[in-house]
TrEMBL record, chain A:
PANTHER family cross-referenced by the UniProt entry: CELL SHAPE-DETERMINING PROTEIN MREC (PTHR34138:SF1)
Chain's gene name: mreC
Stored InterPro entries: Cell/Rod_1, Cell/Rod_MreC_2, MreC, MreC_beta-barrel_core
Pfam families: MreC (PF04085)
Alphabetically ordered keywords of this record: Cell shape
Claim: Ubl conjugation is one of the keywords in the record: no
Record protein name field: Cell shape-determining protein MreC
Limits of the Rod shape-determining protein MreC beta-barrel core domain: 109-257
Gene Ontology cellular component list: plasma membrane
UniProt GO BP: regulation of cell shape
Family of this protein: Belongs to the MreC family.
UniProtKB/TrEMBL annotation, chain B:
Keyword Transmembrane helix: yes
Protein name: Rod shape-determining protein MreD
Keywords: Membrane, Transmembrane, Transmembrane helix
Transmembrane found in the keyword field: yes
């Protein structure tokens, strides 16, 4: 007994180190398993508050570009306003199949990371605004990511620039499906893998979200094909896609809740029950 | 004793604030980020007790992880650096490092520079390995480690010169 205590006293630093190391390693490993919720995230009171403060400052510096974007959007809105008979509509992204205008939450990116392999965004709306995990996030140019975790006022988003992210997407003109991944290299490009070789793809074709995903409505813009090559092992096409969005510069985003989603999920549950 | 204690707490808060507010937003070529917050571990007094250093570097890393959404990678890297710091001292300054009163914030000699270099390399290498978590990214990890080390050391040296008390 005496010897055990002596051993512990002698190696107290080492034991403390190992204890804390195991905690931190388990946090690391847990964060790499994608679908588990993370304990350490920037969607909490302290970090969200600090990021809000920092963002209010950087927002001031970006006023000019934001103004330009708003001016562009204004011009577009006005052109819609003057060209339609029904002038009462409010401009939220429309023509989204299966999404009512009430199911769109307008939010703002308060923290954006794009320099690691697994990137996350932080938004300033949370469960109080009706945001729930697994909702899709888009902006006026294209898709941004999927909600990962929410607190009362903030939420984190798995960016499409995340090597763990997989989103169903298709080629707009031919309806061939593939899944959208990122190889961790350039922030302007993502990859569409597992595209069948029957598909006729050419440089410049538009890629949109596919209908198989219940997170995103069908037909939201992603990007254009930049390069087509064949994967040696599987003989499927891999497409290098140039994003419409500049992921390094995001302002306002829309969080969308697909109305059909519950319906689809229920239907699939019923099928499983029947089996 | 109490004055060094308060200086360390002040350093802890100041370096974290600097890192989160300024350096986290400073990215070169899209992926190189200087991480001068580890100066806290580097500049920690040589002879003070080790458990305090290990616990405080755990907290330091944890707060960084909270702000950068990265699970536990900063925590692990900081812990490893804090634990192996005495060995780095021994390597850089010789066996009798404990009997010297080394203050890193005096002037930068080759020994001090080699100590800082080693510490930064160890921290960054652990960090980027855990961040990628895949063997296929090994080349990427090495490049990130190399380039980030350069930028971290430059920012560390600038900070050391800025907080250096004006003697002489």
């Amino acid at each position: 007994m005496q010897q055990i205590f002596n051993f512990i006293f002698k190696n107290s630093t080492g034991i403390l180190f190992l204890l804390l190391l195991s905690i931190s390693l388990s946090l690391t490993i847990q964060s790499h398993s994608f679908h588990k919720s993370r304990i350490i995230s920037s969607a909490n009171f302290l970090t969200g508050g600090v990021y809000e403060e920092i963002n209010s400052f950087t927002e001031y510096l970006n006023l000019k570009t934001e103004n330009d974007a708003l001016a562009l959007e204004n011009a577009r809105l006005k052109s819609i306003l003057f060209n339609t008979k029904d002038t009462t509509t409010i401009e939220k992204p429309q023509n989204l199949k299966g999404v009512a205008p009430d199911d769109i939450v307008v939010s703002k990116v308060i923290h954006n990371s794009y320099n690691t392999h697994e990137n996350f965004l932080t938004l300033n709306s949370g469960a109080n605004d009706g945001v729930k995990p697994d909702m899709g996030v888009i902006n006026s140019l294209g898709i941004v990511g999927i909600i990962d975790r929410t607190s009362a006022k903030y939420s984190t988003v798995v960016s499409i620039l995340n090597t763990k992210s997989q989103i169903n997407a298709k080629i707009k003109k031919s309806n061939h499906f593939g899944s959208l991944t990122w190889n961790g290299k350039s922030t302007g490009y993502v990859q569409l893998v597992d595209v069948p070789r029957l598909a006729s793809v050419r440089k410049g074709d538009t890629i949109v979200t596919g209908g198989q995903s219940v997170i995103f409505p069908e037909g939201i813009n992603i990007g254009t094909v930049d390069k087509v090559y064949k994967e040696e092992e599987t003989n499927y096409y891999v497409l290098n896609i140039k994003l419409f969005n500049d992921m390094t510069n995001l302002g306002h985003v829309y969080i969308i809740k697909s109305k059909d989603r519950d319906e689809v999920n229920n239907l699939e549950k019923e099928i499983k029950k029947d089996e | 004793m109490s004055s060094t204690f308060f200086i360390n707490i002040l350093r802890f808060i100041l370096l974290l604030t600097l890192q989160i507010v300024i350096f986290n937003n400073m990215t070169f070529l899209g992926f190189i980020m200087p991480l001068p917050y580890i100066l806290f571990i580097i500049l920690y007094p040589v002879n003070s007790n080790k458990p305090t250093l290990i616990i405080s570097s755990f907290l330091l890393g944890l707060i960084m992880d909270l702000f950068s959404n990265s699970g536990g990678i900063h925590t692990t890297a900081c812990l490893i650096l804090a634990y192996y710091r005495p060995y780095l001292f021994k390597f850089a300054f010789g066996v009798s490092y404990e009997y010297q009163t080394i203050k890193l914030n005096e002037s930068i000699t080759p020994e001090r520079f080699s100590f800082i270099l080693l510490a930064v390399v160890i921290h960054h290498f652990t960090l980027f390995i855990l961040e990628a978590f895949q063997v296929t990214f090994i080349f990427d990890i090495l490049i990130r480690t190399l380039l980030s080390t350069i930028f971290t050391i430059i920012s560390c040296i600038i900070i050391i010169y800025l907080i250096k008390p004006n003697k002489r």
